[in-house]
Amino acid sequence: MGMDKDYEDIPGTFVFDADRGREGYHLNQFCISLRLQENRDTFNTNEESYLDAYPMTAEQRAAVLNREWNRLLELGGNIYYTSKLAANDGINFQDLAGIMTGMGREAYRDMMLHGGRSPEGNRYQSEWDKKEND
Amino acid sequence: MARITAGVGCSHVPAIGVAMDSGITEQPYWEPVFEGFEKSREWMKDQKADVIFLVYNDHCTVFDASCIPTFALGCAAEFAPADEGWGPRPVPVVKNHQKLASHIAQSLILDEFDITIMNEMEVDHGLTVPMSVMFGDKGPDDKWPVLVVPLCVNVVQYPAPTGNRCYNLGKAVRRAVESFDEDLNVVIFGTGGMSHQLQYKRAGLINKEWDTDFLNRLTTDPVSLSQMPHVEYLREAGSEGVEMVMWHVMRGALDDDVTEVHRHYHVPASNTAVGHIILENKTS
Ligand SMILES: [Fe+2]
Fold first, then answer.
1. Residue from B59, B103, B196, B276 carrying the catalytic annotation
2. Does this complex have an ipTM over 0.90?
3. Angle between helical axes of B125-135 and B14-21 (0-180°, round to 10)
4. How close is the Cα of B158 to the center of ligand 1, in Å?
């Protein structure tokens, strides 16, 4: 019997559950290793050879090398982990959100200054599907 | 006898720590965030607290994915600020009341809360930012004016413990504290939130109405509030808003009847709605 995932219909959102944790394990372990300067130095010298120590999938590896921030989440990454890779690249949480939402740094920052993204129309996937079809 | 006299709910946005550490709290962006904590610092001083029982979460800093305890109690003598990828925060090392912590550990487990005991642990912004906003600027060579017993809760990998579980854990923490012989004034902090989503295409979600309702019910209707299912936090308050289950531990440790002595709410701090509340037991 499967578990009812009542949180899967929230649009633009990944809930980092046990299944995602399993899929993303090596990717996330790689990301957290970058919290230490020594490891960041080694990674920045040769990304490919550093990644060899983490048996992630070819897709995950490519997403790391190409800095595909949304793809990393789609492949089981969690934001608190992927933000360590972003920090290594000098990207903070807010600028990372600017990239992931496709809004860009300035427009995202401006949205936050004006009270953030409203929950109206952003609660259910069906609301986003409707917007796309309009 | 030790006793819990008051509770503090407080966001722990990392950018608030960065703003304090880089001395930019008076800039127009940050000024309204910190203004709301001025009264809190006065209040905190007046409490003459001996110990803070501080409920927070680690953000994939100290705990990697290899081991994910739902409730981890800090029992080490001290906890150093961790390097989160941009160097450790320049704030004092946090000192524990180690005897109280080990007493609480023992009491909780016999009370059927099977916590993990941490005899070595560093702490990230989840713990140090609430300390900074409530006690003000302190450098690495200063001392925090209180001892801290940290309780680290998993809210990163779904599911976090339920609000109900957290609320009842708060009650067990209170029983543990009240069965400790030393005369101690303990204040409990529940941290995290309020509404925010850091990830993917819906990042930036803020729900002021929901946050306000949460703060209202935390004071007056905590039992029903603790029954809220996870999916409502995720949908209404953003994927990272589920951190707010930790506030129920704080609320559960207080009397049913409390006085709200202070509240502060501001959008934004980086990606997040900053929420803060101070509740006092009427009996103390
Ligand atoms: Fe947090």
1. B196
2. yes
3. 50
4. 14
CATH topology of domain B3-281: Protocatechuate 4,5-dioxygenase; Chain B (3.40.830)
Q: What is the topology classification, in CATH, of domain A10-133?
A: Protocatechuate 4,5-dioxygenase; Chain A (1.10.700)
By C-alpha distance, which of B202, B87, B112 is closest to A108? B202
- At B195-252, the pLDDT tens digits run 999 999 999 999 999 999 999 999 999 999 999 999 999 999 999 999 999 999 999 9
**B21 neighbors B90 (Cβ within 8 angstroms):** yes
Q: Which of A97, A108, A17, A78 is nearest to B159 (CA)?
A: A17
Contacts of B176 (CB under 8 A, 6+ apart): B103, B104, B107, B108, B111
pLDDT, tens only, A43-91:
999 999 999 999 999 999 999 999 999 999 999 999 999 999 999 999 9
State the CB neighbour count (10 A cutoff) for residue B46.
8
Q: What's the CA gap between B132 and B161, in Å, rounded?
A: 27
Nearest CA in chain B to A69: B200
Rounded distance from Cα B126 to ligand 1 centre (Å) = 6
The angle at the Cα of B156, spanning A41 to A38, to the nearest 5 degrees, equals 10
pTM metric for this prediction: 0.97
Read off the tokens for B21.
Answer: 């550490």
Length of chain B equals: 284
